[in-house]
Amino acid sequence: MKAIVCTALACALGSAHAAQVAMEDQSQLKVPPASQAPVFMPPAQSELPDNAFGKMVRDGYALFVDTQRLAPAYVGNGMKCSNCHLDQGRMAHSAPLWGAYPMYPAYRKKNDKVNTYAERIQGCFQFSMNGKAPAADSHEISVLSVYSYWLASKAQIGVEPPGRGYPDVAQPAGGYDIARGKQVYQQQCALCHGADGEGQKVADDYVMPPLWGKDSYNWGAGMHRINTAASFIKYNMPLGKPGSLSDQQAWDVAAYINKHERPQDPRLVEGSVEKTRLKFHANDGVNLYGQTVEGVLVGQGTGK
Ligand code: HEC
Ligand code: HEC
């Protein structure tokens, strides 16, 4: 796993509070295709009270949109939470926080386990942010939970709101094609995300997030699944033109992105990509981890 560069203080805090969380159960959400139903409206930032509660919400918001800079001890790549949960976690069909918060704790029949909201966020730190999970009672998890609670104000507990998650986009009958995906990428994505998926930086800060390579999400993240990435892309990309790609284009370009190397799955089993594939990837949606594509074994990691 990538070494986490941080100041002495942040490292000390990190080791004191970082939790070893069992992350075997990052099972994917079952989200229906998008419907025309009206979506939930979270409160406006201007409605925040000027008191201790308002301050916690603001701290959670700040951490959500500037994660790498504000929580370096827990982030091992160049990402911010809001890179994949658009419009500060408010946008429908972009796994909005108001759609998530009322649905936890979530019971999973498959392994007879309950996932708390804290555990769900910890999962995004370990995989999407390629970092370490802050402890459930840490400042980080607390303020992110308070921010989510506030966005979900007046939502119904335990009732899945339309607009939650990334809507399912069924795999096209003919499957997907990586070569076609490369063309979509070059024509519609490279301008912002870079010819080699590297994103764009201003000084040390990414202004366009990377899609693969050492500063991207790792091989355990939900986005590494082609089906999940296709859903995200169809409803959120190209930025400013959501819904403009066909399902086929979304699948093709999702496969192209997810055949590229990224940081290793932190759950790597005995150093073996094959064992890790069997344990964690064989039944995890559609993904290329541990498969040979164009003569190359996918899933070797970026080694940093
Ligand atoms: C690389 C993209 C990416 C980043 C960065 C990311 N997430 Fe996520 N997040 C996802 C995906 C994908 C899912 C849904 C996984 C699925 O469908 O299985 C998800 C799910 C969630 C959920 C549950 C949604 C629901 O409706 O149940 C929450 C809450 C969440 N993320 C919070 C965060 C927080 C907080 C951060 C920053 C610490 C973060 N995410 C960073 C991609 C990302
Ligand atoms: C106009 C610039 C622009 C274009 C064009 C664009 N993106 Fe993005 N993309 C962004 C930005 C900016 C974000 C992060 C959003 C945020 O932080 O609010 C993002 C986020 C993403 C993410 C999730 C974050 C990550 O780094 O993994 C993926 C995946 C993605 N884009 C894929 C694509 C694909 C595929 C295309 C082409 C079909 C595309 N984008 C076109 C600007 C763009």
From TrEMBL:
Taxonomic lineage from the root: Bacteria, Pseudomonadati, Pseudomonadota, Gammaproteobacteria, Pseudomonadales
Keywords assigned by UniProt, alphabetized: Heme, Iron, Metal-binding
Source organism per UniProt: Pseudomonas bharatica CSV86
Pfam family, one: Cytochrome_CBB3
Protein name: C-type cytochrome
GO molecular function term, any single one: heme binding
Family matches, as PROSITE patterns: CYTC (PS51007)
Database matches in SUPFAM superfamilies: Cytochrome c
InterPro entries, sorted: Cyt_c-like_dom (IPR009056), Cyt_c-like_dom_sf (IPR036909), Cytochrome_c-type_DH (IPR051459)
Gene3D superfamilies per the UniProt record, alphabetical: Cytochrome c-like domain
